[in-house]
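User: Show me sequence and structure for the first protein, then do the same for the second.

Assistant: Starting with the first protein.
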Amino acid sequence: MGGPGGDPVSQPVSREEFARTLAALGGFEPAPAVAVGVSGGGDSVGLVVLLRHWVAERGGSLLALTVDHGLRPDSAGEAAAVGQAMARLGIPHRILRWEGEKPPAGVQAAARVARHRLLADACADAGILHLALAHHRDDQAETVLLRLARGSGIDGLAGMAPVRADGRVRVIRPLLGFSHDRLLATCRAEGVEWIEDPSNRNPRFARARLRAARDLLGGEGLDGARLGEVARRAGRARAALEQATAVLLAEIATVHPEGWIALAPAPLFAAPAEIALRALARALAVVGGPAHPVRDEALERLFASLPDGQGGTLGGCVVRMRRGTVMVAREPVAATERLSVPPGGTVRWDGRFDLRLSPRWGRPVTVAALGAAGWREWGARRAPERLPDLPVPVRETLPSLWSGTELLGVPMIGMCYGFGADGQHPVDRASFCPLSSLGRPAFTVVSDRDGII
């Protein structure tokens, strides 16, 4: 536990400073309902303390959420201790558990994805739009250093955004302008304790190694404030580039309901290279899913091959010229998911399609890619003029319904609305709802009286 004492130079974050920061973020209702991710560390406890006062002054509400990743034997007890600390502060608290098998490698990245999912789902369940996270200035500095070490460009050096729309939740990071020491001072001033996370000092993790080298880096001028300035300037550049990319995509992109995108080649190839590459990358993310990030070098090679009519595969997608447009379609060998769905059930398949099955099925149905053989079978059942003219990769990656080896239906190209033959049960429905939006908002840069957060 942390406690009284500490660096006298570090001043607590005042309620006025915090209120100005949230005013700069904007977008709150008159009586704001906010959820906060709290690990029990000094940073998140400091955020809880500051938010507690802020929502109370505005007649709002605060819900504390703790994710138990189950990675250490003591994690359940620590999560319970956080709940007890929140109870002493009079703040409702929920523990969210990461269930299931953990990956043997890349565990921190997997835990981060699971954490964001659990927090977002909990916010949606509670009807809360705003999720506050306790990333601070030193976290931002570490993020910039890590991405610099990995050769990141402008996007990586921009670090973390203070505001980000993430599906059903609005993620806010109001502490990016404040140091870790100031947050600990805030906890001390309020007389609250915190839990030190031992993984913060584990040299297995890159962030822990960077923290150990902080004094050395600071002596060379790479302190939190300087790296925060790097992130600020890179964020400003990133926002401008993403805005230009959105304008280009609005001009050239056609999103087809069967889950593919066509790009008009002339304006794509005429655009500045950085904007054109970003537009292609956005299309790949929409069709292939955000789980397939692409490297700059591979993206550049693919883009350079398109004017010659070559193309290739990247990010779970097939990209090539087709009938005078650049086709971005799902790669058939990547669409391998098979899901069993009960009658009347709903499912998200391949991270791209939302399906609702009719209750008329008397048994569970398997949702899988149609495949080449499935397309031939489906085509044999229908008049040629009723078959849609789709690219081959699109045909083979349509969601289809199976019972064993029997093809039951293809909702995307069959009747998707109305009622079944008995007039009672709705038919199967499917819609293209990618996790990543083609027209997502540009990277957010927030200004206050002291500059850009």
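Switching to the second protein now.
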Amino acid sequence: MKALADVEPAIALGPLDGRYRGVTAPLVDYLSEAALNRARIYVEVEWLIHLTTNHVLPGAPELTTAEVAYLRDIPESFGAAEIAEMAEIEAETRHDVKAVEYFLKRRLDAAARELGADTGLIHMHEIVHIFCTSEDINNLSYAVVIKGAIENVWLPAATALADQLAGIARENADLPMLSRTHGQTASPTTLGKEMAVFASRLQRQLRRIRGTEYLGKINGATGTFGAHAVAVPEADWAAVSRSFVEGLGLTWNPLTTQIEPHDWQADLYADVAHFNRIAHNIATDFWTYISLDYFHQNLAAQGSTGSSTMPHKVNPIRFENAEANLEVSSALLESLASTLVTSRLQRDLTDSTTQRNIGVGLGHSLLAIDNLRRGIGGVDPNPAVLARDLDNAWEVLGEPIQQAMRAAEINGATGMGNPYERLKELTRGRQVTEKDMRAFIKELGIPADVEARLLKLTPGGYVGLAGQLVSYLQG
């Protein structure tokens, strides 16, 4: 058999870069190896600019406006040719960050062709990567790309899901629906209120994720500014470090070992995994509502084959796909959250491989959100079935009648004793009709105003404040 590994163009090993590439491609701009290298170049360039324009290094040339623009164009113009060049350099260095340093020095050497032979950039080799350990560059680069991926790709998709559910909640705030606690018929609610619960849960997680602090450090081999203080003792290195990190849009962390401890990443991944778990609950509930025909699949919107052998079927595959991808994403993100916070003594390298899977974890979440939104967009509430099930569940009125009896007895009425037991005898294990329930109410001897109120009750009208509660949704 032909080796598929030799086929050109190369075949993706994983589904995110193969079958589902169209959905997850936006993450490539942030969480691919190429994007990480581009971010490293960006950080190295900004560090060079920061040191020279702020006169931190005595004797260093001052950059002109044209030179700053030239430097900043290096990460901006990073593309296919530069990716190949980086791979070539790393094949020699066997060190990814060192390859970035050499790549940038090549660009300094080439500056004369664009800026003229008198440009100071050709004399700045020793400023590139000065005072930096690899992790100074890596931690900042990861913070920049993760922040970009969350804020520009994942959050918009996740917010759209929450908004979609909120829209369904508001449209169906007053549509009665039979509840099913423990899978059994239970006190009615409204479809809108149940959707509002999910939307509210997602919104809470989104607020946490939007509030993420993306921490960064640049303080040397063991976080002490040791070499900095020896080489340039007159500089306020803590202030230089802080202003640089904050200038990248990050939060400065002054207390680190060689690595920034990744606690912020652990918090973020735990929060995204929690969002995933809520979304997983949404997928399983929609799947169940579809099986009850409370939501009816819009066959035109689905546009897909159901069973390969049973032509009548249209399977709820969007929700099943979402379930599976949410499970994979959560498992990976929870693993990242639990392992990244540990580093032996001042540094070990386990996080290097681990962090390269951030895109995979977020990619499966993004894919699941896309499927969930498509699935929800392909179903419609089925009021006829909702009404039918309510009309066949008069036993659910046992709860309000029992509570009305209790309240009446507290208010002085007689003959209201043992309300739970009496309703249990009427309702448990048998079908209760409207006629049965009304006859029971009339035989209670309950005060006339209470009796009148109870006789007006129907399963579909027994939804309490459900419709009003939807108004508590934010946004």
